[in-house]
Structure formats: C-alpha cells, structure tokens
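Milestone M4 deliverable, item 7.
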Amino acid sequence: MNGREFRVILLGPPGAGKGTQARRLAAAFGVPQIATGDMFRSAGAMGAAMGLAAKQYMDKGELVPDDVTIGVVEERLNQPDASNGFIMDGFPRTPQQATALDALLARIHQRLQAAVEIQVPRSELVHRLTIRWWCSVCQATYSMESAPPLVAKVCDRCSGRLIQRNDDSATTVAHRLDVYERQTSPLIAYYQGAGLLKRVDGTRGIDEVYDAIVRAVGVAPAQEAAP
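Output delivered:
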C-alpha cells in the first residue's frame, strides 16, 4: 500500500463505468475494490448458498436483500487489505444500506471521504449495456463496439469464453435502470445532505473520468502527490 487513506463510494446506474474506474482507483491507491456484484457471482459459481441466492435476484435485475449484502461487506472490510481504505462499487444501493454502512464504519473507526456520482444519460446506458460481454472465467468486460476482444468471444486476458449475462439483455437492462431510479437514486440526496456528494461527467473518456474523480475527492495517489 502507498499509505494514503482513500475511502470512497462510486455511485451511478448500471453501465456508468463504476467498475472500470474502481479497478483503476484501487490500483492507484493500493486499496481493494469492493464490488458486491462480483463477490456474489463468484460465490454463486462456487455453489455457495448465499451466492446462489443472490444470483437469483441479480439475474432478474432485482436488488439483493440487505441482510445478505451488508453481511458480505462487513466481512470484507475486516480483512487486512482494507485497513487503508476501499473503493465501494455497487454498495450501498439504498439509503437503508448507507445508514448501515455509516454505522459499520463508526464501529471500526473509519471515515468515508466522498460519494462520487458518475453521471450518464439513460439512452447511453442502454446502448452500453446491451453491447457488453463478460469473460466467464476472469469477469473482464468488453464492449463489442468500442473495446472488442482480439478474437471473437474469447477473452484477451485469460482466453476464457465471453458471454452476455442474463441481466444485460435489453428487457432486463430497462428493468435494472428503472430499479435504480426508484430505489438507488435516493442515495444522491442522502450523500448530498451529508456533504459528501461529488459529481463527474461519465460520458467523457476513461482517463478524463478518472482524473475528474481524483480531483473531486481531493486525495492524489502518493506518486502524484509529490512536489
């Protein structure tokens, strides 16, 4: 780790690019990316009861119940690699979960630095999600339009088979966005009220979005902070 604390939540609807930015931020700051969706899918692939239960909700575009999600996150934050911080990607999704996270952080004497909303218009989100494919082995993401694999339906990283997940079908995408608007967007007001909300334009290039997030949080990676 680089020794600089970085505790940030990334907010935004499915397809906004939270995962891409979370991975880059995690590498830059030496903190883990806590992506509940990936954690649930991994548990489901291994046949774990909690993962299989979560997958049933995710395949329908529904939110995983709070008791399952919060338990997974608490266990993850207690691991040593999260002592200097984290990037939350996909959690919290409701004000109730945000309240539970606040209580959890207070118990372990940690402080959230910012909640960054990545803003992207709905029409662009639908387009992004319906052309998105995933590696069935390493979970790498590909856009068939802007970032296709070198070999059709084969992962560049691990040669795994690329698939289009059930929750990226056109019908389910529309439902997922509706669920987000109804149940998750109130988080914007929650974190705005707490004075932690930052907003960035998610329609810009990946590098530009990353730079905007770092500026918004106001904590640069150690190698960028030197005079």
